[in-house]
Amino acid sequence: MNKPVALAVAEIPADSDFDGAPATKVRGYWQSVGYRLRHDWVTLGFGVIVLLIVLAAVFAPLIAPFSPYAQSIIGRLKPFGWRGHPWGTDELGRDMMSRLIYGGRISLMMGLVPVVIATMIGGTLGVIGGFAGKVANTAIMRTMDVFYAFPSILLAVAISGAMGGGIVNGIISLSLVFTPAMCRVAETATAQVKNLDYIEAARASGAGTLTIIRHHVLGNVLGPVFIYASSLVSVSILLASGLSFLGLGVQPPEPDWGLMLSTLRQSLYVDPLGCALPGIAIFITSICFNLVSDGIRAAMDVRI
Amino acid sequence: MSATVQAKPYVDGRDRGGAAQPMLIAKELQRHFKVKGAGKGAVVRAVDGVSFTLFKGETLGVVGESGCGKSTLARVLLHLVLPDSGDLVFDGDTVGETRGISVADLRRQVQMVFQDSYSSLNPRMPVQDSVAFGPMVNGKSKAESRRIAQDILVKVGLRPDLFGPRYPHELSGGQKQRVNIARALAVGPRMVILDEAVSALDKSVEAQVLNLLRELKRTLNLTYLFISHDLNVVRYISDRVLVMYLGQVVELGPAADVFAKARHPYTQALLGSRLSMDSSKRIESPPIVGDPPSPINPPSGCRFRTRCPHAEAVCEAEMPTLGQWEDRSSHVAACHMTNAQSGHSLAGTA
Amino acid sequence: MLGYVFRRILFAIPIALGVSVVCFSLVYLAPGDPLQTVLPPDATAETIAIVKHAYGFDRPIPVQYAIWLWHVLHGDFGRSIATQRAVTLEVFGSVANTAMLALFAVPLSFITGYSMGALAGCYPGKIMDRVVTGAAVIGVSLPNYWLGLVLVILFAVEYMVLPASGMGQSGSAAFVLWHWSDAQFLVLPVITLAMIPIGIIARTTRAAVADVRNQDFVTTLRAMGLGEGAVIRHVLKNASPQVLAVMGLQFGYLMGGSILVETVFTWPGSGFLLNKAIINRDIPVLQGTILALSLIFVLTNLVVDLLQAILDPRIRRA
């Protein structure tokens, strides 16, 4: 310590341990998640496809070559390229490509909205259940267990079936399907954090329950909740199109992939390829969301 | 020591009772926990009638085997766990009473450092934010809290610019424990409870942290309650020692006295079980055998009698009391052998 | 162990009751009057009152629930509004048909998924792992009703080797499993139904195997000089309880979740019945089918938990 540079350090008590001074820049949790995602080419690639699908849905009026509702009696079930219809026409002579692009709007909405609703309701209930006392926890979690006791598609069909079809009812029933699982994830994460010493230390510092939840609980719960929510989007898209396929979701003449599959099914023998198209759209969207969600999980699910 | 950490005459405006008023008086504190699956009404007597006095500026060491109620006692003192009964008097004010001191005020003046340096820091927060959290919830502005955090980090020997922005997993065990100490001190406490605060550290790091604690105590005029199962550490840092067994105090006295001439057979056994570097002092057989009895159904009379070499009929029949306690130099033990009138055959010899 | 069994069964009872409450309240989720479908549109107020009384709709809701539950506990789910047949009969026959699909789909998906997952887990990061992981993602991302349609296009329309739908000429009453003329109707629905469980089981197995392989005892086995084959046997044995549990749950999901596939193949199972009930707004049948399927699901969960406790002693004490 005889070089002048060391003077800056001399203010520190002599017994401090300066081992392991960081060689690289210190990176926060979200920064390191971002770093890992930027270097995950598979996730990035599929993320771009998801983005394209979303953009196509948002800008559908600009991209779609025809109106998705315009029917034509003479132009029914025509093959690819017929009179300027790149992917042919459906059973009412409507342009397939336009309907698929517009269909993405409803299908994506049905995939995202229930997950967002379920995340907000289930996440809040889960944090309350995890942090509140035994009575509140039992009341919330046992109620959730009841809804958890239905296979998801069955519960969705039951509720939509009873309430009747339509986009709003479909969203309500899917939100109800996802809420219990979301609540469990949030409750587990909260309960894990709740008993750690730093929560007790925060209490010892004089912090109230809400302050502790805001500063020390939410940050640790958001991760698992977000990971789980991202994996639900693809499930929600599949379930929603399934409901529409059964006639319980989107109603005609709205363009929706599940509903298109259901109506085109009647023409299975005449136009097998046209009948397969909406399914391919559902499949590609669902698998892209799945893979992106896997990537997010891999990037976020690190023990620190 | 460095120039920034100076010893200066320290007058704390919050000192109400003066130097002679004890910092903390615990009176017959009791905390039982219900246990599931061990029969109806079964309770663990984690803290069972503990009384002691903690003087200003001293370090009281609390020792005992794991499970004897040390950690519960620490949490009861901060009202993190509420006592079933008993009183707590902080600087002359009874905690939780209308005319006394509120729990919130108590927590501003008494802080705690936990054993597990990992779980006692929020993994998602840079450590400077963890340190600044205490001042912030106590009404300081964000900028000021951060400035306090930086000052305290310097005091515990961590360069704020280097270590402040780091996350707990980027620190070593010793560094994390320094942060924990900083976190406790940031609130500006007068008393700190150290619950096995150095137990998880390597020996060399432990010594550094112990020295830091002594230094901080001197410069910040702190009072320590130092909980540990490591007798050597307790001897090194404590002015007085309190020995706990199954939720009760069995011996209390000045550290030098207790270590030189333990009066309770349990303390003697604990001291005998220390490893010795001196080969002539090594013992062949363990001084204490078996596990402590279950705190759910403690033995009648003296709780130590089931493992005590001197146990007699009177030990089973009557619970020994801690004896007359006068001032900080008193050395008392809850054993029939210390009481000439107890009827024990060895009475008066200890 | 007995204590655990008792506690677990006790835990299932309030869940089953809760499930029954949800099923019961489906009537009140339906828009409009539940009697709308039974009554002629020009019914007089008097007729409405009589019918209401006959169905018990004029009593307080908790009383209605109690009466309904009492009947359900005696195996009486009421009568179908559409066919006037006892709901119990309709539900029983269709659940049996669904169970037939599930009982074939579960072993198929277990064998396929488990082998895929085990292969992938034993060679993490290798080509095999990537192929399996990719296939598993495809399995869980496929809309299975669409896959059913594609299979129909291929095998029934193009190559005409398998029938497209239904249960064949004999129908569900005279269905004989060991006659190819009947059994061939099972092939496409079973494969379609197995697709999602294959993906899920392959993923679970891969994760479980990879997890077990990283445990210290595996290193110990290698250090003891055990051959790679023997090590893998140990690994698979330790990974299997978790996989078995997932497989058990899949049975429950297949029972309750086959509605889409049954609709595609017009297989006269519970899902098909459900679909019909929804179209006809036949609430008693809807309630009965959903209650039966969800109770089967609750029961499957119970059995899986108990089996797991037998296989893994750690769970009993938790």
N/C terminus separation of chain C: 11 Å
**What composes the largest sheet of chain A?**
none
| Radius of gyration of chain A, whole Å | 26 Å
Give the strand content of chain A. Answer: under 5%
**C-alpha Rg of chain C, in Å?**
24 Å
User: Termini distance of chain A?
Assistant: 35 Å
Give a brief rundown of this model.
With about 300 residues, chain A is mostly helical.
Explain what you see:
The complex is a heterotrimer of chains A (304), B (350) and C (318). Chain A contains eleven helices and no strands. Chain A is mainly alpha-helical and 304 residues long. In chain A, α7 packs antiparallel against α9, α9 (209-245) runs antiparallel to α11 (272-300) and α10 runs antiparallel to α11. The longest helix of chain A is centred in the C-terminal third of the chain and has 37 residues, at 209-245. In chain B, 29% of the residues lie in helices and 19% in strands. Chain B has helices at 70-77, 103-109, 127-137, 142-155, 160-163, 173-186, 203-220, 231-237, 255-260, 265-272, 313-317, and strands at residues 24-34, 43-54, 59-63, 85-90, 93-94, 110-113, 191-195, 223-227, 240-245, 248-254, 332-333. In chain B, a hairpin with a 2-residue loop joins β9 (240-245) and β10. In chain B, α4 (142-155) packs across α6 (173-186). Chain C is built from 13 helices and no strands. The interface between A and C is large, with 43 and 50 residues.
